[in-house]
Amino acid sequence: MKILVPVKRVVDYNVKVRVKADGTGVETAGVKMSMNPFDEIAVEEAVRLKEKGAATEIVAISMGVAACAETIRTALAMGADRGILVETNVELQPLAVAKLLKAIAAKEEPGLIILGKQAIDDDMSATGQMLAALLGWAQGTFASKVTVDGANLIVTREVDGGLETVQLTLPAIVTTDLRLNEPRYASLPNIMKARKKPIETIKPEDLGVDPTPRLTTLKVAEPPKRLAGVKVKSVAELVDKLRNEAKVI
Amino acid sequence: MDVELSPELTEMRAALRKFVTRELEPLARRMDETNTVPPELVPLLRDNGYLGMRLDPELGGGGIGLVPYCLTIEEFARAHRYFTLALDYSSGLTPAALAKHGTPAQQAAYLPGLVNGTIQASFALTEPDAGSDSAAMRTRAEKIDGGWKINGRKHYISGGGDADFILLLAVTDPEKRARGGITAFLVDRGTPGFTVTREEETISSIIKLAELTFEDCIVPDTAVLGRVGGGFAVAMETLTSGRLGVSCACIGAADRLLEMSVDHARTRTTFGEKLSERQAIQWMLADSAIELRAARALVYDTLRQVEAGNDVGSAASMCKVYCSEMVGRVADRAVQIHGGMGLVRSYPVERFYRDIRHYRVGEGTSEIQRMLIARALFREAETRA
To answer: Which among A206, A222, B100, B172 is most buried, taking Cβ atoms within 10 Å?
Structure first.
């Protein structure tokens, strides 16, 4: 079974995000970028399935600017076999990504596509579900456990009320939750080997997909700054302020 | 802030930083509390491919070149000096000498254990009257029927107390000494006549130095590493990589010390103002940053030359002197900036301050390095004239 793992290049989770001065987005120039942490979990799960003999090949896919190749390299260093970079400078939104992935799936014919449940930059949590709908495949989202059972996949999902276990017929879509696994560290020899693994670069046009955004971002702003507190001299003054200024009691 | 290397090495540094921060840093804190090496360290390093990383893949190693190895030392040194020694025990002097000069039987006997961390090696060169002047060693190996009889004493041997075997240098021909009269031997712990007679505590609380005594210790001919009389060359050939390794350890420690100093200056308030607002503190930080960057530029340039196969002359000595003295100044400023916090055992600045003092002494003192640099200058002048 072949597994596709889409990986997104995002601002590193340790970076304190700053809004661009013109309010069009967040600052990414000179900022440390990494693989979306949920996608790391997806790569790890694919590698574990391959180590267990349930998968034969892992293809890591990234979409966006040329530097996304570095994100693919990280996946290759963790154990993916080859990469596909869909290179474009257009802003990619979940529907466009899902359409591009659908076109790649038609070509690659994978048995399973594992995605992060969401990306930590826009927190959309939409691509996996959209892709399942477009392909007409079964989906197991927010997975905390995945086992292959013949032609089926058993997925334990984290839902509001607790855990739900579903059985999916392959081919299928899985999106990863935080507790699915703990991703491995890429070892230095594997980073070196990853440099020799192939990455194919294609354009959205090659897949017959128009990635033009359907949503327009009007403005990005910092959350309002918390104002400094005041000191009160007595309980009576505190109660007065809470009642008449803050109007909370 | 980095004087960067290549996209591949940048990726390696990011991977290393993540591993060191998440896995090694908590162990370093525990080592500070307990003064012992946690048992999970070796399996952790092995499972992530750090043991024997410099050795050839055919010998079970990771096939990692000198530059990424030095980068690993640098990143490991940001957490604790001991971690750099753990790298050295499995990839450094003794394993490298075995990989280069060992017979297939010797390699089969020792390398797998070194690479999987089940055995430890130690390198025994220094003697009470032969430190910097190592060719003056007195430990004697006499040829007997079928083997060698060793008598003498080695001291200040790091890891010597725990080592499962020793790479020992001894005089086999007193007439020739360094010019073909010194031989390398592999001596197992427990060989009759070989005893660890003392272990000394050092300025680095977790690191001990051992005294090893040999009294009519008999080893077979198969214990000779390389050829008889070739021992001094074995000891000297890894000097360049050893000096560059120490230089990178200094850079890693200085990088961490500067980072801690900047963080402290940004958060600590005195007389209603952050330390970072005070020029006295700013200047100290700026001086440390300048020297650290200069050190990186010097060392990375030298590493690139070594990697390209160029003769770097005395450049490795220059790196070692500059970096070891640089980290001394950076550590001193770090203590000053941290004030009382820089003096207490519960905070790592104090430990770094003690640990880095070693670097001006071990792997050739600053004075020896300067002597070598000056000699190279005169040699060069002679060829010019």
So the answer is: B172
Residues B168/B150, Cβ–Cβ less than 8 Å: yes
| Mean pLDDT value of segment B183-205 | 93
8 Å CB contact between B91 and A189? no
Residues of A in contact with B62 (CB under 8 A): 187-189
A16 touches chain B (CB under 8 A): no
Range in A66-80, B3-17, B82-96 with the lowest mean pLDDT? B3-17
User: Structural domain boundaries of chain A?
Assistant: 2-244
pLDDT band at B3 (very low <50, low <70, confident <90, very high): low
Give me the mean pLDDT over the A153-176 stretch: 94
Output A36 or B205, whichever has higher pLDDT.
A36
Say what percent of chain B tops pLDDT 70. Answer: 99
ipTM: 0.74
d(CA A58, CA B305): 38
DSSP string, B361-379: TTTS-HHHHHHHHHHHHHH
Q: Is A158 helix (H, G, I), strand (E, B) or coil?
A: strand
Of B8, B14, B19, the CB nearest to A195: B8
Cβ of B18 within 8 Å of Cβ of A70? The answer is no
pLDDT at B156: 93
Residue predicted with more confidence, B262 or A191: B262
Residue B68's nearest CA partner among A191, A194, A109 is: A191
Mutation target to probe the B interface, by most B beta carbons within 10 A, among A71, A74, A188 is A188
Strand ranges, E, within chain B? 121-124, 140-144, 147-158, 165-171, 182-188, 194-201, 208-220, 224-225, 269-270, 273-274
> DSSP label at B275?
G
What is the number of other CB atoms lying within 10 angstroms of the CB of residue B17?
12
- Catalytic site residue from B259, B363, B380, B382: B363
Q: Are B156 and B202 in contact (CB under 8 A)?
A: no
A70 touches chain B (CB under 8 A): yes
pLDDT in tens, B219-265: 999 999 999 999 988 888 778 888 999 999 999 999 999 999 999 99
* DSSP assignment letter at B57: G
Residue B338 identity: H
Q: What number does CATH give the domain B7-116? A: 1.10.540.10
What pLDDT is stored for residue A151 in this prediction? 87
Contact B41/B20 with Cβ under 8 angstroms? no
User: Domain B233-384: which CATH class?
Assistant: mainly alpha
Nearest C-alpha in A relative to B19: A185
Strand order in the sheet with A112-116: A162-169, A152-159, A138-149, A172-176, A112-116, A2-6, A57-64, A82-87, A199-202
* Contacts of residue B273, Cβ cutoff 8 Å, sequence gap at least 6: none
CATH superfamily of A2-244: HUPs (3.40.50.620)
Q: Provide the residue ranges of all domains of chain B, joining segments of one domain with +.
A: 7-116, 121-229, 233-384
Quick: pLDDT tens for A98-130: 999 999 999 999 999 999 999 999 999 999 999
Task: Enter the DSSP assignment of A209.
Answer: -
Q: Please confirm, yes or no, whether B142 is among the known catalytic residues.
A: no
pLDDT at B1 over 50: no
Residue B14 contacts A where some CB pair is shorter than 8 Å: yes
Q: For residues A100 and A87, is the Cβ–Cβ distance under 8 A?
A: no
pLDDT of residue B4: 63
Name the CATH superfamily housing domain B121-229: Butyryl-CoA Dehydrogenase, subunit A, domain 2 (2.40.110.10)
Question: Global pTM?
Answer: 0.86
> Are the C-beta atoms of B45 and B38 separated by less than 8 Å?
no
